[in-house]
Amino acid sequence: MDYSSPDDPCYVISVAAGMVNLHPQTLRYYERIGLVVPARSPGNMRLYSQNDIERVQKICRLADELGVNLAGVEVILRLTDTIGQLQAEMDELRAAFEAETQQLRQYLSDDDIDVEAR
Fold this sequence. Notes:
Elements: E1 11-12, H1 13-20, H2 24-32, E2 39-40, E3 46-48, H3 50-65, H4 70-110
C-alpha cells in the first residue's frame, strides 16, 4: 500500500477550494498575504497538502466562527506554529534527558550503588 504524508502536496487549487468550500481566488489571496504556502509543481501549479487544507479550515473557523480578522488570524497561526515547534523541541529534550538518566542509573547500578536509597 502507498501511504502519503500529510505534508505531501497533492491537491490542485480547484480541488482544495472545493474541500474547504472557498473560491480559488480566496485561496490565492490567503497565499498572497502569507497565511498558507502551498507547494508548486514543476509547471508552477499550486499543490495543497492535507496540512495546508487543515490550516485553511483553521483560518475559516477563526474568521467565520470567532470573528477574528485576517491580521488576527495571522498572529494566532504564527503563535500556534511557534508553540508547536517549542513543544517538539521540548519533547526531544525530554527524551534525551530520560535516556541520559537511564544510562546514569544503569552505570550506577553496575557499580552496586543504590540510587533509589538516596
